[in-house]
Design goal:
Elements: E1 4-17, E2 20-33, E3 37-41, H1 48-56, E4 63-66, E5 69-72, E6 75-76, H2 77-84, E7 89-92, H3 96-99, H4 106-117, H5 122-135, H6 141-145, H7 154-166, E8 172-176, H8 184-201, E9 204-208, H9 212-218, E10 221-226, E11 229-235, H10 236-241, H11 246-253, E12 303-305, E13 308-310, H12 315-318, E14 339-351, E15 365-377, E16 381-385, H13 392-399, E17 407-412, E18 415-416, H14 423-428, E19 429-432, H15 436-439, H16 446-456, H17 462-475, H18 492-504, E20 510-514, H19 522-539, E21 542-546, H20 550-556, E22 559-564, E23 567-573, H21 574-577, H22 584-591, H23 633-637, E24 642-646, E25 649-652, H24 657-661
Parallel strand pairs: 3-9, 3-10, 7-8, 8-9, 16-21, 16-22, 19-20, 20-21
Antiparallel strand pairs: 1-2, 1-4, 1-5, 5-6, 10-11, 11-13, 12-13, 14-15, 14-17, 17-18, 22-23, 23-25, 24-25
Length: about 675
């Protein structure tokens, strides 16, 4: 390896708690040269964020840091981190809402590092801030610079945070889940930008992510952390193609793949992280490992195995043995039931307000949903994909009658649903939100949260209600010991399971899952997806599954609907939508998906300019203003009709079907 820009050896971090010292990192070493990119992966609690905070000198006062070496460009970070932070070392955190100051305009925050570290006059710094926002692909950057954080979408806020981190042209970027909140198209733009920074400016990257496709595309080296210890480290592409440590195998087995669809049930890693106040002397993954054997209780050292460092004494013996997978497959599912939900011509417009939205004065209103029709059968999963702002969440809430439609009708189980439905419909149609921290009452225990719908709909009371709470917890694979817990006493995956249990308490026939697994680790995500699949198969629950993660949708959905600016532009069986012929927008979404083992797909990617909020034609195809293959006047002046290109597969596009069928396959499966 070339001379390291960042050189870490023997780093250990511990935190003082009431239960004793929590050993968050134990003897971690890694090195990144100029222009290099290191991926850092592992479940929540493995120590990834502690690593970033240690490099920045931002650990809590009660934290204890020890290291044989902690150097950046020859300087000891323990003394120099405050001076280097923000100038030569940039940082992008996962939550842009927490990283941005709500009381300051976006442009000022992006310009602030230039004023503080480069001593630029404020007018010059603000002008450069507008340029940086434009480089991030933000439309109307001058107006956005005048906005406050609460006036921006999550994706725009994250791009503003990245612009701030890049302001001083740092030599090292620390990226802590930088694209979790972004659509695949925006994510692709950010990844392109990071690749250019590596190539043109020799910027080094340390990328913390649970998205292994992003790691494979962006990183040349990979470090896998488990419970504070490095368990495998080496060439990223080689490790993701042929992992040697059981934990790395488990992470890959739990990953839903857009290029493989509904091949089989996902394989989550059982159990949870060990108690970090009592570090295991032997392998700390042994309790969860399906390959454990005699000798796993002995200390495990990092050893060279097939050109990478592996902390497992059975690494050579296991060879290419795959992680055990459950036997259940999609082929074993029962046939779909009768028609449950039918929506015709749903429409909803929102009038734009003041503040930041005044920059869009030419658009007095937004057509969030514009004449959408769809249907679901019992036990069917309809995946709904598209960029943020295309109307997915609004459509889900219209179907539940949580917001009033301007036009259109809904029939549920053969009966019309009024704009103000009765309690019977409310019981049978429920929603699981993206963020359980926002949807669960922090002052209610799990027991109280699950009892409320039982009492509200008169389903159970007294001892029967207590038994039902236990049954609901068992349904989501949690023990009765969770009954007295409050939300802050649970992990993200546990809280999301409680959100699902609460939605199931009313015994619904229809569930809207709005980005229900987007913030979860791959193993927890796999467990939740398996749970939803079980509910679908065992109870016949129908799902509208809203997500920007096409790999997740490809795994769980029977059909996929692609939405753009309030309309459905393509709809059909999952495998048909994932293969040509494509609507050009579908092709762009699929080609932007980062896949493990396909980092070389960059040359075939169909890139989009702008975003879904950009002003389009008053009439014509809603995608015409961004479409890279539009054919001129027809696209600009006439809205395309839905055409059936195969049984159940419909596309709204003026392009000849033969031309759409000649599009390159965006998802080429790799084994």
């Amino acid at each position: 390896m070339a001379e390291a820009l960042l050189d870490v050896a023997g780093l250990s971090v511990s935190y003082a708690t009431r239960r004793g010292l929590v050993h968050a990192l134990q003897d971690v070493s890694l090195a990144i040269p100029r222009g290099g990119a290191m991926g850092l992966v592992g479940e929540s609690g493995s120590g990834k964020s502690s690593m970033v905070l240690a490099l920045l000198g931002l650990l809590d006062k009660g934290a204890r840091l020890e290291a044989d070496r902690l150097d950046f460009a020859g300087e000891d970070l323990r003394q120099a981190c405050a001076r280097l932070r923000g100038s030569r070392i940039g940082t992008v955190f996962q939550d842009p809402a927490a990283a941005l100051n709500p009381a300051l305009r976006i442009g000022f925050q992006v310009a602030e590092p230039l004023v503080q570290h480069r001593r630029l006059p404020q007018p010059i710094a603000l002008a450069r801030a507008v340029e940086l926002l434009a480089e991030m692909g933000i439309p109307r950057p001058a107006e956005v610079a005048q906005a406050y954080p609460h006036q921006l979408s999550g994706g725009m806020k994250q791009r503003a945070v990245i612009a701030t981190a890049l302001a001083c042209e740092p030599e090292l970027l620390l990226l802590d889940e930088p694209t979790t909140a972004l659509d695949v198209t925006v994510e692709a733009q950010i990844l392109d930008l990071l690749e250019r920074l590596r190539r043109d400016r020799q910027v080094a990257l340390l990328l913390v992510s649970h998205n292994l496709g992003i790691v494979d595309r962006l990183c040349d080296r990979l470090t896998v952390l488990y419970a504070g210890r490095v368990v495998e480290q080496g060439d990223a592409a080689t490790m993701l193609r042929a992992p040697r440590h059981p934990y790395t195998r488990g992470l890959l087995a739990a990953l839903p793949r857009a290029d493989r669809g509904q091949l089989q049930r996902l394989a989550p890693i059982p159990g949870g992280l060990p108690d970090l106040t009592r570090p295991e002397s032997g392998c700390n993954f042994a309790a969860r490992c399906p390959f454990r054997a005699e000798g796993c209780d002995a200390p495990q050292a990092l050893r060279d195995v097939a050109g990478r460092a592996v902390r497992c004494h059975r690494a050579e013996e296991l060879g290419d043995t795959p992680w055990p997978r459950p036997g259940h497959t999609a082929a074993q599912r029962a046939p779909l039931g009768a028609m449950l939900l039918e929506a015709e011509g749903l429409a909803r417009r929102f009038r734009l307000g003041g503040g930041f939205l005044q920059m869009f004065r030419s658009r007095a209103e937004v057509r969030a949903v514009d004449g959408v029709s769809l249907s679901l059968r019992r036990g069917e999963v309809l995946g709904l994909v598209g960029e943020s702002g295309c109307g997915k969440t609004t459509l889900g809430r219209l179907l539940l009658r949580l917001i009033e439609a301007d036009a259109g009708t809904i029939r549920f189980d053969g009966q019309p649903v009024s704009p103000r439905p009765d309690a019977a419909f409310r019981r049978r149609a429920q929603i699981v939100f993206q963020n359980p921290d926002s949807s669960l009452n922090p002052r209610q225990t799990v027991e109280q949260a699950l009892l409320r719908p039982l009492v509200r709909f008169g389903l159970a009371s007294g001892a029967a209600a207590d038994r039902e709470v236990d049954r609901l917890l068992e349904r989501v694979r949690l023990s009765p010991a969770y009954r007295p817990r409050y939300p802050h006493q649970m992990s993200g995956g546990e809280k999301q399971r409680i959100g699902i249990a609460r939605a199931l308490a009313s015994r619904p026939d229809f569930l809207v899952c709005d980005e229900a697994v987007s913030a979860l680790d791959v193993s927890v995500q796999a467990a939740v997806l398996n749970l939803l699949a079980d509910l679908r198969d065992e109870l016949g629950v129908a799902f509208l599954f809203i997500s920007h993660d096409i790999g997740v949708v490809a795994h769980i959905a029977d059909r996929i609907a692609v939405m753009y600016r309030g309309v459905i532009v393509e709809e059909g069986p999952t495998q048909a939508v994932l293969a040509p012929p494509y609507h050009p927008y579908t092709q762009a979404l699929l080609s932007a998906v980062p896949l493990v083992g396909q980092s070389g797909r960059a040359t075939t990617r169909l890139r989009l300019v702008g975003d879904v909020s950009a002003t389009g034609p008053a009439s014509g195809c809603p995608f015409a203003h961004r479409c890279p293959v539009k054919i001129g006047a027809p696209c600009e002046r006439q809205a395309p009709a839905m055409r059936e290109v195969a049984v159940g597969h419909r596309i709204a596009c003026h392009l000849p079907i033969e031309e759409m069928a000649r599009a390159p396959h965006a998802l080429m499966a790799t084994e």
